[in-house]
Amino acid sequence: MKNLKRKHIALLCVIFPMFGITGARAQEEVKINLPKAIEIALSENPTIRIADLEIERQAYVRKETVGNLLPNITGTGSYSYNLKNPVMFMPEGVFGPGSGGPMRMGFNNSFTGGLSLSLPLFMPTIYKTLQLNEEEMRNAVESARASKVTLVNQVKKNYYSILLGESSLEVIKKNIEYAQVVVDNTRNSFEQGVVSEYDLITAEVQLSNLRPTLIQTENSIRISRLMLNMLLSLPLDTRLALEETLYDYTSYINGNPRYAIDLTDNPDLNLLDIQTNILQKQLEIQRSQRIPSLSAVLDYQVLTQSNDLRIGHYDWKGTALTGLQLNVPIFAGFTRNNREKQIRNSIAQLRVQRDYLEENVDVEAQTALSNITRAREQMDANQAALGQAQKGYRIARARYDTGTGTIVELNSAQMALLQADLNYSQSIYDYMSAQADFDQVLGRER
Asked: How far apart are CA 378 and CA 383, in angstroms?
């Protein structure tokens, strides 16, 4: 774990040189792409670190179970002071006439020391518990993988949201520039008496209508950036400069093959299968408690008694024994039967839940695949519409500049161009977002 942590620190030092900045100085922009973002999230996000710690904990749980098969050595010691010595009742005349009856025996001080050793020879419950530990480790590993799959999906979608926002922002700013030029030209023409005041007001309204959209888009980008920084466990004021644009994914989309649905690696289904196996192992543990267990025992004791505390002069005597200890379960008040029935009931519930979940996951995969196909078709249609809108805007602008077109035609053409450009960007985002959801359903970690 220490080596892994050092690698993470070295990675961050390479990727984020701005960490050397101190005080209130603003942080520099850090260039990053999607693979780097995923790599950092998988190494630094607290969710993944918690999942890794759970795997480590399960390793200790297994070692604890293995320890139950090793010898158990216990040392004991005791001291007692007899306020009144113990009494032993003897038959009358046992030692001759006048003997017998109650007799006090022993000394004031009593010391005892001992050493006990127990070695399991046949422990069916522990053997089954080891099998349970293996399933619990598989559950921890699969849970960690599920966390990674979910995290990668979140990173991808926030990354794509930033790209969509920046693409939309660029389009809006470009249209604001177009609208500003139209306003300036219309104002000049109005002052010269070439166009009416209505045309000037219409052009200014068109420009004003674009500014709220600009503000809304900038706010959306800001929120997406905060979310991405949080997912990457970076300071929220870290400025990430994305090396890609949304349009860079068009070549990927155009070359992407058809998809096949394979739910083998779906983490939710796998976790339910593992949890069913865990319950099966718990059922086997309950059954194993009906089987006798066998242990070897060794016990050694030393003891002495005296009326004084001159320990160095005591006469210590030792006793030792060894043997086998057999534990045969006979009756436990039907508790084992009821526990087994509870576990069987839980297994039946998980099986019903698994069947239902498989249907839901299949629907999710079909939906994501349908969204991919739909986004691909919309992308082609929006690309064609964008080309037509660009051509229409050029014609409307030329007509307006030459006085043969109206400001209404020009505004309509500009809005059509803006909407077509935004629609094209949105279709690329929809495709990549649906792709991310499809990857999550299939359990892909990258």
From this structure: 8
Q: How far apart are the C-alpha atoms of 385 and 234, rounded to whole Å?
A: 40
From 3.30.980.10, 1.20.1600.10, 1.25.40.10, 2.40.30.10, which CATH number describes the 27-68+123-291+331-442 domain?
Answer: 1.20.1600.10
Q: For 82-200, where are the E strands, in sequence order? A: 87-90, 101-104, 109-122
Residue 422 · residue 143 · CB < 8 Å: no
CA angle 120–126–128, rounded 5-degree value: 145
Indicate the domain borders of the chain: 27-68+123-291+331-442, 70-121+294-328
Q: Looking at residue 184, what is its pLDDT? A: 86
Please write the tens of the pLDDT for every residue from 128-183.
Answer: 999 999 999 999 999 999 999 999 999 999 999 999 999 999 888 888 888 888 88
- Please say if the pLDDT value at position 18 is more than 70: no
The C-alpha atoms of residue 444 and residue 446 are separated, in whole angstroms, by 6
For 340, residues 6+ apart whose C-beta sits below 8 A from its C-beta are 283, 286, 287
Cα–chain center distance at 276: 21
Edge-to-edge strand ranges of the sheet holding 109-122:
72-81, 109-122, 293-306, 317-327
Chain mean position to CA 135 = 19
Q: What is the mean pLDDT of the chain?
A: 86
- As a whole number of angstroms, the distance between CA 109 and CA 364 comes to 79
Q: Residue 418 — pLDDT band, cuts 50, 70, 90?
A: confident
Residue 295: which residues within 8 A CB-CB, separation 6 or more? 118, 119, 120, 121, 123, 324, 325, 327
Largest CA distance in the chain: 152
Tell me the C-alpha to C-alpha distance, in Å, between residue 183 and each of 69, 174, 197, 207, 208.
87, 14, 12, 8, 11
Radius of gyration, CA atoms only, the chain: 40
Phi/psi at 328 (5° precision): -110, 110
Per the CB < 8 A criterion, the answer to whether 397 and 410 are in contact is yes
Average pLDDT, integer, range 373-399:
90
- The residues, ordered by sequence, that sit 6+ positions from 277 with a Cβ below 8 Å of its Cβ are 135, 138
Task: Check residues 26 and 366 and name the one with the higher pLDDT.
Answer: 366
pLDDT grade for 194, boundaries at 50, 70 and 90:
confident
Contacts 24+ apart (CB under 8 A), 235-241: 235/27, 237/26, 237/27, 238/16, 238/18, 238/27, 238/30, 239/27, 239/28, 239/29, 239/30, 240/29, 240/30, 240/32, 241/29, 241/30, 241/31, 241/32
